[in-house]
Specification:
Chain lengths: 154, 829
């Protein structure tokens, strides 16, 4: 099952990327109090997903050397943009990273079904549910920010 | 002859369970005026808390000289509280009333005429509209205006300008009440009634110091707890309030959770209902959805786990849950201890969960009162000056938006509905960057009342945003404005307002406003005229000139919605006073309580919101909502507890929490100008527990510096009744002072509070911040805090603080025969 292991590694890595990026956006836009607090909360969820996944990573071994899915990896946001339009763009980047996490879990859940790996299925299912909530918040916040950022922001 | 500063709640009229609350008429006239001197009594209702007591205004020589409770009013049965009695009228003839418009010239506010002031406003407004469009405009209102004014402003903002940036200071006091209703029941609207007090056998007060915030409602409870077959009281509050004492006296319990841990406590209570099977399974399965998820969410919150988080004894939690689980009728009331604290909406929704699990809603004695902080907050929520769409319509439902567009004869695209309305803190944030360049503030004082007030003052004073302030006085906020407009106040104009439990009152004009002051309605109309807002046919968007016409337009737009005013008119409101909506053909005399059939406004096409994620505030989509098929069932929603955003640490080891005292209201604009009230609580203070005070070497009355990462205050210390580790400060005191106190510049509690808000209700968190306290110097005597309220000295501490009193004379008499109150279940047969 080399490819399942690769995907487990991808889940681990993409959650790590998402968590780091959420924290970077939180701190970069700390003046927006809700962005600051919510992004830190959501980063905590992603970190928890990795913690839950750790025993599975141990079981399957983290295959980090298979080439192909590497292309799927998004780079973490290390710096953030300025102002209202910058916030919008950063939230959009987070949405892309969270989408990668989401589809990764979907794929893993399929694999876990096939293998009857209940532990992995449970982790993938609960993680997917929370990733959906991360995506929902990002969409809500983008919708709120967009008109002002696009039309009026200085 | 009663001094109502000393005797806050007045004479007891105890009565047995299930019988009508007796009537007692309270009266206060200013010194030198006898009852026989009063020329006219003018119908109104009190504006000095959210209770909504019916009263008549005494008029003599063209001045308001006092008030008298209306014996036949459904809310107060004649009673008034200290704030209403002493504070209702003195401000009106205060010598520092604004009587002429002011404009800023060369940095100074100078007097001008209305035409000049309005020309300046319109010039800026039109300029920004042309350059940046309507999103450059924001409006920040109040919980003090009248229904007609909110609705008129809502139409100006949504149909005239088309801006989503409208909110009220109701965001600071009551937004969570509305949000919690929407999440659980699908729409705003108080389920319960004050008449539940007469029929319940247990009353739970959550973060609600009712004896100080709604004194007349507390009197109503005392008349039950001191009568036959009394209810047990359960108090959730970190301070030893009068509620806590009554809880102990009635065989209930006082739970004092650590500040910021309400949700853990609530999850523990909900879990106990499941564990002991105090659940009405048939009712739950027919009338709710989400019970399995809720059970799972609360499962970790064992009494012992809750005890660890909250510092509440596991046995006390069990006792409280048992009282809830085994009583036949429970009334719950909720206020700022929940709304302004961490995880506000989730904790308030948990109160609903308890009631829903037991089917304890919709019958006399089984109800919920999510309170309001202000007398007209409800109208701001109903009319949409707070950003919501009028009539509890759903911004995410195109059909609802179209209904309004049709009513206003404008294109639906004009009505802002593309995203949740912009909440107050976000409006300030946009004003901070100049993204909002035109901000109009009416009847509120954010320079004192908003969190992190130094930041707010900077925003209002800056050049990046043009600010209009409309008020009775040159408040701390007005001093920072570009244009100041003098407004008429209560008794100087006519209009309606609606209290906590949906009861509508008409308040008639009693006297003329001073100088050139105008009603808020007339000011908004003047702006609309000058801007020339038109509908699709070129007619004015605002199609009314008087308050009564505005009321008619409002009533029409409520047809078919939960908040139905179609059966109400000024004439009807002049009859027996105090009528709760919905009032329509089906309920011509109003409706005492909602959801008597267990059917809630959750249908996807009818609801006010599709709901939110209680943790993140992410919105539920229409499709998701439809898939749940709520169809009239209430939502049981839960969320896990998380620690507060700022918790004590090495640098700031104590918890800072803010609150109220019975003798002042808000930033004291009215109560500070009433001698009896102001001398009872003349200056700011902080309350420390005896333990913390001893550790810090602080004695009663010492000057102390209280500091958070954002700011500091220097005030006197009361060794009081807060729990160890917590520091309490009243938020009323800004730098304005009626007696020009010298030390008034460093006492505003909101210097310390954080810019952070609840993810769903967007209500700022005033109750949780970290602080440190240092002693500055000895005081000249005891702290200026009242001694007969929750701010009293700690029991057993030696104090020289004189007993609070000295209120002017009032009269009070109990009626031999109680009037008949329409809809009162105690009198129905």
């Amino acid at each position: 099952m080399p490819h399942l292991a690769t995907y487990v590694a991808l889940a681990d890595h993409s959650e790590k990327t998402l968590a780091e990026s959420l924290r970077a956006v939180a701190d970069g836009h700390a003046r927006q109090a809700d962005v600051f607090h919510t992004c830190h909360t959501l980063a905590g969820w992603s970190e928890q997903h990795r913690e839950n996944l750790a025993p599975v990573v141990e079981r399957y071994g983290e295959q980090d050397d298979v080439e192909e899915p590497e292309r799927l990896r998004g780079d973490a946001l290390t710096s953030t943009r300025e102002g209202e339009i910058g916030l919008l763009r950063d939230l959009q980047d987070l949405h892309l990273l969270a989408t990668l996490v989401h589809t990764t879990w979907t794929v893993i859940a399929q694999g876990a079904q096939g293998l009857r790996d209940r532990q992995l299925l449970e982790i993938a299912t609960s993680s997917t549910a929370e990733t959906t909530r991360q995506l929902t918040w990002l969409t809500t916040r983008m919708k709120q920010a967009a008109p002002q950022a696009l039309i009026v922001a200085p | 002859m009663v001094d109502r500063i000393t005797d806050i709640w007045g004479e007891r009229t105890p009565h047995p369970r299930g019988t009508v609350w007796p009537a007692r008429v309270d009266l206060h006239l200013e010194e030198g005026v006898a009852e026989g001197d009063v020329e006219r009594w003018v119908q109104s209702a009190c504006l000095l808390c959210s209770n909504g007591c019916g009263c008549d205004i005494a008029v003599k020589d063209g001045r308001m000289v006092g008030v008298r409770g209306r014996a036949g009013d459904t809310i107060n049965h004649g009673r008034l509280g200290p704030k209403g009695l002493y504070g209702s009228t003195p401000w009106a003839s205060s010598s520092d009333r604004l009587t002429r418009p002011l404009v800023r010239r060369d940095g100074q506010l100078v007097e001008t005429d209305w035409e000049t002031a309005m020309r300046r406003i319109v010039e800026v407004s039109k300029g920004l509209l042309a350059e940046k469009g309507p999103l450059s405009h924001g409006f920040y209102t109040s919980g003090q205006l009248f229904l007609e004014e909110y609705y008129t402003l809502a139409v100006i903002g949504k149909a005239g300008l088309g801006t989503p940036h409208m909110d009220g200071n109701t965001r600071l006091c009551t937004a969570t009440s509305a949000a919690a209703f929407k999440e659980s029941f699908g729409a705003d609207g108080q389920p319960g009634s004050y008449t539940d007090i007469e029929h319940c056998d247990a009353i739970f007060l959550y973060g609600h110091n009712m004896p100080e915030t709604q004194t007349v409602l507390w009197a109503r409870i005392l008349d039950r707890t001191r009568g036959e077959d009394p209810p047990r009281i359960v108090c959730v509050d970190p301070r030893r309030t009068a509620v806590a004492e009554e809880a102990v006296r009635t065989g209930g319990v006082h739970l004092a959770p650590r500040v910021g841990t309400n949700l853990a406590l609530m999850n523990g209570l909900v879990r106990e209902l499941f564990v002991h099977d105090w659940v009405n399974h048939a009712w739950v399965s027919e009338h709710t959805i989400g019970v399995d998820e809720l059970r799972e969410t609360v499962d970790p919150y064992t009494p012992e786990h809750v005890a660890n988080i909250c510092g509440v004894a596991a046995g006390d939690l069990r006792t409280a849950a048992q009282i809830f689980g085994e009583s036949s009728g429970v009334l719950s009331t909720v206020l700022q201890g929940f709304y302004q604290s961490h995880q506000a909406t989730a904790a308030s929704v948990a109160v609903h969960n308890l009631h829903l699990l037991r089917g304890m809603i919709g019958r006399p004695g089984a109800g919920v009162l999510q309170m309001n902080g202000q007398p007209t907050a409800q109208n701001n929520r109903e009319c949409g000056a707070d950003g919501d769409l009028p009539g509890f319509r759903n911004w995410d439902n195109p059909e609802h938006v179209q209904q309004l567009a049709d009513a206003w004869n404008v294109d639906a695209m004009t009505v802002p509905h593309w995203a949740p309305p912009t909440h107050a803190m976000q409006i300030m944030s946009y004003a901070e960057t100049g993204s909002i360049g035109f901000l109009w503030i009416s009847a509120t004082n954010p320079a004192v009342s908003m969190p992190e007030s130094a930041r707010i003052r900077r925003i209002l004073a800056g050049d990046q945003c043009f600010t209009v302030v409309q008020d009775l006085f040159l408040t701390e906020t007005a001093q920072l404005a570009d244009v100041v407009l003098p407004a008429a106040g209560w008794g100087e104009k006519t209009g309606c307002f609606t209290n906590v439990n949906r009861v509508v009152h008409l308040s008639e004009q009693a006297v003329q406003p001073p100088g050139e002051a105008r009603s808020d309605l007339d000011i908004f109309l003047m702006y609309a005229d000058a801007m020339g807002f038109t509908d699709r046919d070129g007619a004015p968007v605002v199609k009314w000139r008087t308050a009564e016409e505005a009321f008619g337009a409002w009533a029409a737009v409520t047809a078919g919605r939960p908040v139905d005013y179609t059966g109400l008119s000024y004439d009807k409101l002049r009859g027996p006073s105090g009528i709760p909506w919905p009032v329509n053909a089906e309920h011509p005399n109003g409706t005492d309580r909602l959801y008597t059939d267990g059917v809630f406004p959750t249908d996807t096409d009818y609801c006010e919101t599709y709901g939110h994620d209680l943790v993140t505030g992410g919105t539920v989509s229409e499709q998701e909502h439809r898939a749940m098929a709520p169809a009239g069932r209430a939502f049981l929603k839960g969320a896990p507890y998380t620690p507060a955003h700022e918790t004590p640490g090495d640098d700031y080891p104590l918890l800072f929490t803010t609150g109220r005292t019975v003798y002042q209201f808000h930033t004291r604009t009215k109560t500070g100008r009433a001698r009896s009230l102001n001398q009872a609580a003349p200056d700011a203070w902080v309350e420390l527990s005896p333990t913390d005070a001893a550790e810090l070497g602080i004695n009663e009355g010492d000057w102390v510096r209280v500091e958070s990462p954002r700011g500091a205050i220097e005030v006197r210390a009361r060794i009081g009744r807060v729990m160890p580790g917590a520091v309490f400060a009243p938020f009323h005191y800004g730098h304005w002072d009626p007696d020009d106190l010298a030390d008034a510049d460093h006492r505003s509690a909101n210097e310390l509070t954080m810019t952070v808000w609840d993810p769903v209700s967007k209500q700022p968190t005033f109750k949780t911040a970290a602080c440190r306290v240092t002693r500055l110097r000895a005081g000249e005597g005891p702290a200026p805090a009242p001694t007969n309220t929750a701010s009293a000295p700690a029991p057993g501490t030696p104090t020289t603080a004189p007993a609070t009193g000295g209120g002017a004379v009032t009269s009070s008499h109990v009626l031999d025969e109680t009037p008949h109150y329409t809809l009162d279940p105690s009198q129905e047969n």
